[in-house]
């Protein structure tokens, strides 16, 4: 009986799959031209029309294949991690899986599934990209990011610009030679240059994460590749606006003006929306409904992206800074459950999107039917992107090093910090080389290339696609080796950076840690107070490895789980102690400050932030709220006691 | 400067929105017929083509509007909850918001946004429905569900069938009268009957949740409305298969056979995939990578849905039972972090989908341009669905009551439980009336109605759409009042049902609770050991309301957070004690068993489950795994100690 059932289902599955592949006339996106207009009620001639049931079956199979690929990619990723194989990276495998399935789909008769799985730039920009960017912003180590902000901006803005221009010029000259009868305009060459200047934030960083590469290098490459995407999108769009117009010298400045306006407005949109969320959370009681709260946070962050894109601004920049602002302010106003939900859901969505993007790239190579491959052009482009990256990384690194050297010398002369400090290069040569190597291109380039217009669009798209896949395979596959060859510092444990893959119940709310002298080495509002001693897990572990807190395990657990109430009842005192504790922290932060002298320049913002912004945006006035103190347990407690109406 | 920026952005936004609305020729789904074929490289004539940038801007605005509606709906939901307004329900508001924005979009010139926001059945079935079903299955109170399984199946299967047939016959007769020149075939009438027999699981249940209605009534309506959807989909598809064929009497039996096969195979697919996940989790080390783990669990559950749909089976049934199986087995093999991530992500996705579905329904009323409204047909249909539901609920309730009475009398005569128990009706009259009232129709009906073929498809679609919206507004708006009128037991606290909207760190793994005599009243594997005493939050609350545990707060917290290690080290003893503790539990479960005598019939499964299935599917052989005991903290501990390779 069971056998019969299983046979029946297997038979049905094979039959349906076969039909999905063979049936040729089930395409709903391209209505056959002989069909009458939509208003004609006679449209529904049953002989001509695809049954929605069949249609749904096809889309089910397409989605099944996609999810199957995603599962394979994730499983490989687990397998690689488990076996400690680092020579092959999961993104490379994802691309290969995509290519294999793409090839199978291409070889099969029928085009319904092929059409469904083809790369769609609107789908990429609206569904796949936002989670990756949002999670990047949210998980960003803000201390490291803003400490290296100058370097990041330097590589992101002029770097991408140089790269795009160099690449555009080389391509224009090459095509002007007419060797492959590809003749593109200068604007198109620049467009391709812009698409191929977006470096990919995923592959390199997951390798860096696995090796725990020096946080500084990590942060610079991370920040660059994130902002990169936004900048090449803006550059691409700017180029497209100049299509058909004669390109003058003035248009470069016009483009730059447009670019800086776009960048700053987008940044502003993101920050304002992030602050809006913080204020909403602060001034409403929505934390009592954490389910609604976490939905709203996710939705409003996405609104930043779509609003920004809708206004012809850069959604990526907005979303990135919205994520940063959310983590910097709104995070502290959320309920505990929302803190956890938001963190995990951002991570999960980002993870799925990242893997899917590479599968999609692999699929695209075979399922996009119109591609025109010009081998020489591809080779020339592949070489030129290396040249272009070389031209942007090395001169700019020298510039950054020079700026930092001058700054440090000046600050030493001023005697601001009179210690005897050797002045190393801000970005030493091996870091520069690694940054050059980290210049593999990602899906943003391909998605942009889909927007290239003109006679040679499919030639250029094919070129971009192949070059992107090549860089991911070549540079992505050799990064681990390069880390060793270049003798880059690995195995760094960044104490600001709580590892993501362990269960932690987040930190107890920051303003509850005021009267804990033994834990107050961290700044009350900074990221650094993701203090490990706060997680239950650590408490649970205290029996086994007593290396996190100095108190005995039972003492610790008792301390930590009764503490919120002590501090809660003393919350007024805590607020009074607040400025004092911050001043005392300055001394303790000295070690860090010496390490990053440049940071002192941004100290004014930190002071402004702590004294003006945080009291406004964060929820510190607990006594007014009665039972609804900022930490969730009291809220729940009061909920149980039903002393709120 | 800032003012200028803000003005500039506002200007840009208005300009872009205006363009998005005004521009009329930016539709990419319907390529103009004069365009040459796709293979022609000259396709890219810049004058004819929509720039992908403009296209992306339009889709950004569409998405922005959608998310804005979603945010409004969620915010209203918070506002209603906060102000304790129960007369208006959030789903009704969602529909209204959708209608208002739909009207605005309809009145505006241009059709790009209108086309984008139109209800799309493939989008509904592939994106919006799965999270709702999956979360329902996962969050299901299994004890209550399977205790009332007979009633649920009775109302779901014959109930839906009766409802569809009655409705179909009434509609067929009415249209045959020819009063509105709508002349549909019997198969079409039955199709409409099937679409309008799917009751909506969202609105009623959220009201029931708010009022904490008696779990039994809740479970029956919940189970019915869930299975309902699956059954009406299968019935609809069966009807569609008979289109054009002469309907004979034999085809009814053929249809029923087809239906039962579909149902049982779908159920099997779901259960098998759920078990597969449990076995994968048990036999791999994937819990060391909770990020990958939670992605995989989500993806494999979705695979159940798409696989089932792809095989022409019922994805809903598969997904529902996959969710149930996941919670029943796989849950206990997950890492702690995945348990939390999966729970929260399912809830969040379901919440978003639920709200969105109603917004979509409201939008559809105005943005679907071809709808043909026939007022009389709509009124007749609205009345007939009440008649149809009446015909299914009341006779079947009597049947269920009779069956239970006979069963109870027999078990009393057999002396199995010789206590003096009064035999109340299984479903008393006020419950029956409430079930009748709970028959509001949902989005599944509309999504199915989009698949109706033939001359009158838009008439029938309009009818279904209006009737669905009417039932949601009328029945949904009056449910709260009916609860009072019918004197339904409210304010029930179901101790099996941990409230979702508070932060709980889930339960400590079941087999760690063996040597806790004071907490062992719960069955080690059942849902019931979501014991409140295990959540940190409760520990945190012990200071304030010492009503959960009898020990002092500090004692309690110390106990609970050091306990895992005691039990961990004694895990072998615990396993030896296991059978003994289960036997002793039978006595403690007596109270429950008396309440649900019918349950004794399913006792064999519970025994089989505990003795055979759970040892196979759950991860209990901890000693073999070295550091990787089933509870996550030791895994992480061993990770820290790096004693795994």
TrEMBL record, chains A, B:
Location of the region described as Disordered in the Swiss-Prot/TrEMBL record: 546-571, 619-645
Domain spans labelled Cation/H+ exchanger transmembrane: 76-483
Family statement drawn from the similarity comment of this UniProt entry: Belongs to the monovalent cation:proton antiporter 1 (CPA1) transporter (TC 2.A.36) family.
Annotated transmembrane regions: 61-80, 92-109, 121-138, 150-174, 258-281, 313-332, 344-363, 375-400, 434-452, 458-480
Subcellular location: Membrane
UniProt GO BP: vacuolar acidification
GO cellular component: early endosome; fungal-type vacuole membrane; late endosome; trans-Golgi network
Stored NCBIfam families: b_cpa1
Main location: membrane
Pfam family for this entry, one: Na_H_Exchanger
Alphabetic keyword roster: Antiport, Ion transport, Membrane, Signal, Sodium, Sodium transport, Transmembrane, Transmembrane helix, Transport
Molecular function terms, GO-annotated: potassium:proton antiporter activity; sodium:proton antiporter activity
Annotated source species: Kazachstania africana (strain ATCC 22294 / BCRC 22015 / CBS 2517 / CECT 1963 / NBRC 1671 / NRRL Y-8276) (Yeast)
Protein's name according to its UniProt entry: Sodium/hydrogen exchanger
Membrane topology annotation: Multi-pass membrane protein
Signal peptide location: 1-16
């Amino acid at each position: 009986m069971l056998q019969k059932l299983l046979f029946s289902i297997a038979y049905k599955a094979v039959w349906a799959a076969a039909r999905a592949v063979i049936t040729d006339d089930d395409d709903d996106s391209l209505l056959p031209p002989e069909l009458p207009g939509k208003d004609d009620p006679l449209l529904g001639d049953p002989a001509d029309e695809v049954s929605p049931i069949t249609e749904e079956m096809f889309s089910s199979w397409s989605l099944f294949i996609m999810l199957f690929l995603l599962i394979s990619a994730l499983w490989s990723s687990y397998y690689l991690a488990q076996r400690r194989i680092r020579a092959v990276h999961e993104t490379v495998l994802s691309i290969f899986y995509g290519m294999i399935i793409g090839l199978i789909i291409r070889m099969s008769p029928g085009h319904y599934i092929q059409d469904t799985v083809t790369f769609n730039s609107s789908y990429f920009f609206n569904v796949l990209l936002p989670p990756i960017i949002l999670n990047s912003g949210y998980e960003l180590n803000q201390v490291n990011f803003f400490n290296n902000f100058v370097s990041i901006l330097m590589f992101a803005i002029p770097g991408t610009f140089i790269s795009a221009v160099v690449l555009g010029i080389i391509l224009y000259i090459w095509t002007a030679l007419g060797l492959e009868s590809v003749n593109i305009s200068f604007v198109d060459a620049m467009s391709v240059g812009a698409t191929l200047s977006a470096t990919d934030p995923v592959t390199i960083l997951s390798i860096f994460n696995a090796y725990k590469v020096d946080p500084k290098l990590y942060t610079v490459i991370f920040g660059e590749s994130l902002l990169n995407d936004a900048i090449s999108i803006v550059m691409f769009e700017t180029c497209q606006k100049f299509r058909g117009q004669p390109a003058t010298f003035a248009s470069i400045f016009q483009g730059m003006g447009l670019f800086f306006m776009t960048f700053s407005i987008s940044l502003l949109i993101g920050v304002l929306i992030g602050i809006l969320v913080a204020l909403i959370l602060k001034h409403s009681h929505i934390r009592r409904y954490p389910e609604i709260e976490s939905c709203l946070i996710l939705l409003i962050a996405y609104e930043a992206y779509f609003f920004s894109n809708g206004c012809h601004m850069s959604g990526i920049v907005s979303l990135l800074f919205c994520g940063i602002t959310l983590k910097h302010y709104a995070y502290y106003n959320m309920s505990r459950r929302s803190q956890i939900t938001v963190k995990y859901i951002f991570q999960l969505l980002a993870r799925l999107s990242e893997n899917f993007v590479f599968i999609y790239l692999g699929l695209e190579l075979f399922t996009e039917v119109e591609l025109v491959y010009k081998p020489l052009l591809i080779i020339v482009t592949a070489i030129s992107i290396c040249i272009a990256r070389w031209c942007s990384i090395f001169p700019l690194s020298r510039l950054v090093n020079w700026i930092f050297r001058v700054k440090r010398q000046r600050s030493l002369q001023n005697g601001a910090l009179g210690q005897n400090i050797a002045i190393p290069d801000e970005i030493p040569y091996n870091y520069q080389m690694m940054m050059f190597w980290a210049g593999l291109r990602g899906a943003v380039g391909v998605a942009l290339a889909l927007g290239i217009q003109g006679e040679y669009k499919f030639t250029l798209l094919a070129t971009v696609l192949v070059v992107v896949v090549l860089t991911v395979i070549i540079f992505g596959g050799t990064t681990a080796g390069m880390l060793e060859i270049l003798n880059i510092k690995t195995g760094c444990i960044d104490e600001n950076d709580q590892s993501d893959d362990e269960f932690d119940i987040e930190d107890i709310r920051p303003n509850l840690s005021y009267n804990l002298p033994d834990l107050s080495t961290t700044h009350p509002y900074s990221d650094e107070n993701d203090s490990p001693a706060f997680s239950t897990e650590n408490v649970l572990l205290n029996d086994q490895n007593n290396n996190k807190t100095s108190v005995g395990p039972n003492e610790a657990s008792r301390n930590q789980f009764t503490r919120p109430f002590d501090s809660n009842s003393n919350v007024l005192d805590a607020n009074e102690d607040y400025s004092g504790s911050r001043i005392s922290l300055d001394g303790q932060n000295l070690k860090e400050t010496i390490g990053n002298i440049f940071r002192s320049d941004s100290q004014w913002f930190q002071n402004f932030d702590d004294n003006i912004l945080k009291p406004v945006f964060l929820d510190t006035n607990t006594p007014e709220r009665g039972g609804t103190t900022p930490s969730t347990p009291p809220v729940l407690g009061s909920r149980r006691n039903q002393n709120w109406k």
